Amino acid sequence: MEMGVKDRNAANHLEELRAILLTPDRESQSTVMERLAELEKALVDDKAFEERLTPHLEAQVVHLQKNFPKLFGQFLGPAIKHQIEEEREVIIDALYPIIGKLIAKYLKEEIKRISERIDESMKDPFSLSTLKFRAKALFAGVSYQELLFREVTNRHKLEEIFIIQKDSGLSMAHYSLNEVTRSQMVAGMLTGIKSFLEDAFQKGTQELDTLEYEDYRIKIYPFPRFYVATVIEGSPDQEYERFLKKYVDEFCAKEPIPAREEVTQVIQDRLSLALKEHFHGFNQARDQ
Amino acid sequence: MDSTKQGISKKIALLGSHAVGKTSLISRFVTREFPNEYLTTIGLRVDQKTVQLGDLTVELIIWDIAGQDDPVRIPQYYLNGAHGYIFVVDLSRESTWSQMDHQIQVLEAMMPKAKRLVAGNKKDLLSDKELQELKLPVTPDFLTSAFTGENVDEMFHHLAQILVHDDATTA
Ligand SMILES: Nc1nc2c(ncn2[C@@H]2O[C@H](COP(=O)(O)OP(=O)(O)OP(=O)(O)O)[C@@H](O)[C@H]2O)c(=O)[nH]1
Ligand SMILES: [Mg+2]
Prior knowledge:
The complex is a heterodimer of chains A (288) and B (171). Chain A has 288 residues and is an alpha+beta fold.
């Protein structure tokens, strides 16, 4: 067998897998359909095939679209696993952006919700802050919702900080400069993705330490029973990372983190408050 | 001063074969909607919803795990730390429940500390007579319909209740 062909096939499979798997779940099927449509187009472009194949193909495409999950659902898991084992290096590159997108989607939805909420709360036309904002928006030439959005998202470099119980993926504490409210969802997804990657690419006992997406970067600081995750906007240099790590270590040294226990509101409130106190001046301290 | 404010977070997982309605049940419970298109869950999706039980606020973090006919194939790391789980079968498809006793046994071994509920879903697709004649290897704790919403809230609330009462037993 020719290696070139095999490689190309592998690359194609990988492309396929990459498109199908681990895309934000609900988008996946449309990707499959798009691919089938593309495939169909490629084939019908060739005139010789057109007449003979089109009817069969259409029927097949419809059949596949309808039954994809039933037909292939159970094979996907083992297939990815196998593919990953075979193609570790390639797939790492392929997976990272997708995973990033998944988290980005969650965070973005959250940030959008917040800006909508703030917008809602500013509908009172007589409130001074509303007037100020409108004036500012007018001068800036953007909708004041957009302006608000920018204020919410761009003010700081360190955007989020989580303390997450390792096994359950429950958020034990969360401090956010964006007031992301569904933090448990983000913590759970992050933990699921982290475990998946560590399992798939296990290199000894190494733990995942960075995930990147768009202009954000999630740094993970592992401790035996919990981990700290920070979301940073922009690309921090090494000095910034050292500075942040020092902040995280100082926090974990002075604050008892009961990661063996049940995650209660009392613990969450105490730790979140402590996080806030420890980190609220971080960006300013950093800028000096 | 804050002693009235009690709350706790619990991780629960929804498990069962393909297309039994795990995602639809969660969607019904969390967003009050029934998704009208079947999009299979790939990997994992996490949702959250707060349940109020008297003075106690239970924050349920729900892990919707891709359907798997053979539970051994479910990555252990998705199940770690789960306080409870719901094993879902599709009442209208025997293949989803014929092996359920075995499947539950495997899951018990994977999550020895977790509380369990069994849901017989898609109740709306069966007549009363068909329901009575149905002989499942394990009797479901709840017969649900994500489509009509029947018993969905009740089931999640019941699980929340079991999770906060350590002495309670699973059915
Ligand atoms: N009639 C009826 N249909 C249902 C009910 N619950 C789910 N369905 C349908 O069953 C199909 C599968 O539902 P999902 O919720 O996606 O199933 P799932 O268990 O999440 O499937 P996977 O993610 O593939 O494991 C969809 O077509 C749903 O519309 C129900 O209570 N009644
Ligand atoms: Mg699903």
